């Protein structure tokens, strides 16, 4: 797959969930295209490792360790961007969790945790970023929603509810800030080859079983790598998408077209 040719020199991004999976792939591509990146994550070692990898490759990055369910973490990520790089232009909310159960199989703690990470996190980071994006003359916020933010799925009650909230938060905030040059969009991936793909399944169900069942439902007949998702984020972060805001963009091999 070819890579987009995008110049983000002089621009600055913050990425929550940047220590693994799609978030780490997004960090790598933004840095490769010249952006300074604040790498947010809960895992100390992995968050620092991703930032160090960027720096070792000649890029600019700073790690911020914290839990995005706490609004103070979002505030710290934005403050770190301003302190280290002097501005903020791009915001990516990639942190996410999944609980695989219907409503009856979801207790209060599981519901609250799913909503806290998947909804509170993007809200806190977007809210914290708006003043800095205004000062920069505009910018781009990209939320990672899901195909489950567009259509329902059995056995994923809390996850579907949370991603539906992210998709509609994206639309609402896009309308609030359209005249300020702040674009707000969401990507809606289906199955992706990340640690989340195999997590939380009933015992006895292997990763190969999960892949096989997903492949049956994807018209294109394959599961993408995180790098492919990062290219879509890069497009939405760049000036190439400057007339796109308020969208929820499926990246799903045709899954939601059925």
Explain what you see.
It is a single chain. Helix 1 (21-32) links the parallel strand 1 (12-16) and strand 2. It is built from 7 helices and 7 strands. The protein is an alpha/beta fold and 258 residues long. The chain has one domain: Rossmann fold (3-Layer(aba) Sandwich). It starts with 11 loop residues before the first strand and ends in a 7-residue tail after the last strand. Helix 1 (21-32) packs across helix 7 and helix 3 (71-85) runs parallel beside helix 4. It has a 7-stranded parallel beta sheet with strand order 3-2-1-4-5-6-7, with helices on both faces. The protein has helices at 21-32, 44-56, 71-85, 108-135, 157-177, 207-217, 226-237; strands at residues 12-16, 36-41, 60-65, 90-93, 139-144, 182-189, 248-251.
Summarize the structure.
By secondary structure, the chain is of the alpha/beta class. The protein contains seven helices and seven strands. A seven-stranded parallel β-sheet has the order 3-2-1-4-5-6-7, with helices on both faces.
Tally of alpha and pi helices: 7
Based on the structure given, which CATH architecture is correct? 3-Layer(aba) Sandwich
Name of the level-1 CATH class: Alpha Beta
**Structural class, judged by helices and strands?**
alpha/beta
Estimate what percentage of residues fall within beta strands: 15-25%
């Amino acid at each position: 797959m070819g890579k987009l040719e995008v110049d983000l020199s002089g621009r600055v991004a913050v990425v929550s969930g940047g220590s693994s999976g799609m978030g780490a792939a997004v960090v790598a591509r933004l840095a490769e295209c010249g952006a300074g990146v604040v790498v947010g994550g809960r895992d100390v070692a992995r968050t620092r490792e991703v930032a160090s990898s960027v720096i070792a490759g000649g890029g600019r990055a700073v790690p911020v360790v914290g839990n995005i369910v706490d609004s103070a973490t979002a505030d710290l990520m934005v403050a770190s961007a301003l302190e280290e790089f002097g501005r903020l232009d791009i915001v990516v909310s990639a942190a996410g969790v999944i609980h695989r159960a219907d409503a009856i199989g979801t207790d209060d703690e599981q519901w609250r945790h799913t909503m806290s990470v998947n909804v509170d996190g993007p809200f806190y980071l977007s809210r914290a970023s708006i003043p800095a994006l205004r000062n920069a003359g505009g910018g781009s916020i990209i939320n990672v929603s899901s195909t489950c933010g567009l259509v329902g799925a059995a056995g994923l009650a809390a996850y579907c509810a949370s991603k539906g909230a992210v998709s509609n938060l994206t639309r609402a905030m896009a309308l609030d800030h359209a005249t300020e040059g702040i674009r707000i969009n969401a990507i809606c991936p289906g199955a992706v080859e990340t640690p989340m793909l195999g997590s939380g399944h009933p015992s006895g169900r292997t990763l190969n079983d999960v892949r096989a069942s997903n492949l049956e439902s994807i018209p294109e007949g394959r599961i993408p790598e995180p790098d492919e998702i990062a290219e879509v984020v890069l497009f939405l972060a760049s000036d190439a998408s400057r007339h796109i805001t308020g969208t929820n963009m499926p990246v799903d091999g045709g899954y939601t077209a059925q």
